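Suppose you are handed only these lines of text.
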Amino acid sequence: MIIAIDGPAGSGKSTVAQLIASRLNFKYIETGSMYRAVAWKAQQAGIDPGDTERVAEVARTISIEFQPGAERQKVMVDGEDLTPVLKTETIGRLAAIVAANKAVREIMVAQQQNMGQNGNAVMDGRDIGTVVFPDAEKKFFLVADQKERAQRRHEEIKAKHPEVTFERIYEQLQQRDYEDENREVSPLVPAKDSIRLDTTQMNIDDVVAQMIEMIGPVHSQ
Ligand code: C5P
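From them, the structure of the protein bound to cytidine-5'-monophosphate can be written out as follows.
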């Protein structure tokens, strides 16, 4: 069984996806961190994120793995734990630029399909229900008010990055939403057969409880 969870930045996807995966004893594949890893590596190499050829080369050679962590799952990039550095909104913005690169998407989508091929996986992103696993058994599309999403992101990172203001995050998020919704390749759109959940007024536990109920009984393979 594949559970696809798509939606814009800060809609709660990664938190609920991780909780659902651990409740069901499924693998959790956070596809956003894969685009973030490519963006981070390109940045480290001094490559312009808009340089399609060179960024595609980064995507072709990068190794991305998910490993269990104490609290959250770890993202290992070329053997290095990059979990904390990938989460910044600056890397998020760069990720949105490299994610518009067709060659990068092809490479990442193939890797994601490979990671999920044995089933029993929760995968979150922007195009899981539409492109990566269009036949996923359950598809969710999480949304939330833009201010609320920026607020959540701010809460998440303010301890580590006190210099980043709410206004700055709000602005970056607006821009990222615009880019994700308007790019030519795999723009952010809900799959026709997805269940839409507005999480603006909901807490995480309620969202998870509702989704688990909608998923229903799970038969392991
Ligand atoms: O989900 P997250 O905010 O970590 O994703 C970072 C960026 O990666 C998104 O803004 C989007 O541009 C891109 N992305 C994507 N397709 C996915 C997951 C993420 O294009 N499946």
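What can we learn from it? Residues 9, 31-33, 35-36, 92, 95-96, 99, 125-127, 176, 180 surround cytidine-5'-monophosphate (CB under 6 Å). The chain has a mean pLDDT of 94.
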